[in-house]
Every structure is written in structure tokens, then in C-alpha cells.
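Final report, closing paragraph on structural work. Over the funding period we assembled a curated collection of sequence-structure pairs, and we close with a single example.
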Amino acid sequence: MPNRPRIGLPVAVSAAATISAGIGMAVQSTANGTLGEILGSGVFAATVSFLVGLLLLMVVTLVAPAGRSGFARAVRALVSREMPWWMFLGGLGGAAIVMSQALTVPLMGVAVFTMAFVSGQLVGALIVDNTDLPPGGRKHLTAPRIVGSIVVLLGVSLSAIGVIAQGVPLWAPILPLVAGVATAFQQAANGRLKQHARSAIAATTTNFIVGGIALVVASAVMLLTGTRIAALPEIPAEAWVLFGGLLGVAFIGVTTVTVAHLGVLLLSLMSLFGNLVGSLVIDLTFHSAEAEVNATTYISMAIVLVGVVVTTIRPTQVRGR
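Its predicted structure, as stored:
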């Protein structure tokens, strides 16, 4: 009998890990959004979140031999130009994520943020997967991928119309969509960096260094132009808002490993499922956003999930009968 492709253990484990990371990202969105409200600026909140994650990663990198040697290989790859310098800029995508979380989640909730963000990921993934950038190689466009992604975008558009009708400004759903596009490139670049460094810790640390530098510069500019920090989190009552950086470490670390098994598009879809589950629970439990969860939100989620299912269909499943 001819060998037939099958879903192996690495793919199944990668999918489960990515879904779990997606749930964690929904919690991260809530933490960063709340921190932005406390500090009075989404840029300040994103900077604090990134620096908390970077502190943890620096400790892990220094303690773990694999992290130290992997980081040294990453630096050598940059200096020797074995990898182009722009592949080290994945951290800018991470910075865009936490900034959009802090700015938009208080306005429209985690669920709508998630759908807008992942729709951007899908658009970016359709482009990136059709190039040689992903570590798992080129994944050509197929009809199910294109149709499923269009369905997802329709679902997200419906949710965006719903929150705008509730008074949320137009830029709010657009910002996470742009961050999602940037994240697709970030995941592919981080996967490549992990291959060269032979260490997910080193790749994630590099990601946080680049994003952290960008956010520190942005915060410094805001302070110099007169923007001030409104307040600081009350410890220990509000200490949980600082955990966003730690969850960001977990998300980027997991996706840096799993992108090689899933590809950028499938990785985006798995993280979407986890995001939707976590975000819906959070929005229904805390009601912390100006926009409410309503029938439009549920319909949008159903359309998005249909699009996810369609996108994951393999062409062989249609032809092989």
C-alpha cells in the first residue's frame, strides 16, 4: 500500500499547545487592557508588559545552558549575516500585539479584539505561507484556505460593524487587525531564528529584546512630550495585571516551536480557537468593555469557526474518494 500522509504526534501536540497558548493570550489581553487603563496609556502598559516578560526570559536564558548557547548562536548569525537583519525584527510584531491589547480591549472587549487580531493573522499567513520564509517550508494556497479565510473575514467584519454601532471608534477594530498581519511575519521569522539558534528560549528572548527596545523608545518619547503615568497598580490587589508579559512569553515561546509543525496559517487558526474560548468566558464573566457581548458577537464567532473548519480542509479530503 502506498504511504499516506497522517497527522503525527508532533502535529497533534503542537495543535493542543497552540490552543492552550491562545487561551492564555485572551487572559493576556485582559491584563494588558486593564493595565493600560490604570497607567493611562496603552504604550506605557505595553512597555511594562514586555519588560516583565523580558526580565523572566533573561533569567531563564542565563540559567539554562541551552538558552545561553542558543543566544550566542543567534548573535553570531546576525553578525556574520548568516541571517538577514530584518529576520530579527519579529519583536516588533509582539510589541504591536500588546499595544493594541492595551488600547482596544477596554473599548470593545476581548472577543472582538481576538476576531479582529486573528483575521489580520490570516491575511498575513496567506501571504507568508506562500513564501519560503516559514521554517516548515512553502505551503501553497488552496481553495479551502482561500474560501475559509474569506468566511473568517466576513465574520470579523460583522463583529466590527456591531461594536462600531455601539459607539466604538473605527480605529479600534482596525488596530488589532494590523497587529495580526504583523504577527504572521513575526511567527515565521521567530521560527527561522529558532532553527538557527537551536533554542526556542534564545529566539523568544531576542524577540522580547527587540520589542522591548522599541516600546521603551516610544514611552520615552511620550514622557518627553508631556504624557504622564496616571497611577501605578495597587499591590497585591492589582498585581495580576503584570502577568500579561509572562503570558506573552508563553505564547511566543509555544508558537516559535509549533510553527514548524503547523505552518503559519494552521497555527493562526489553532490560536484563534483558544482565543475565542477564553475571550468569550472573560467578556461574559467580567463585562469590562464598553461594547457588550450580544447576538451579533455570537453570530460572528459562529461564522469565524465555520471559516476555521473550511480552511483546515485538505484538498485530498475532497478528491480522495
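Residues 1-7 have pLDDT under 50 and may be disordered. The first helix runs from residue 9 to 39. We thank the funder for supporting this effort.
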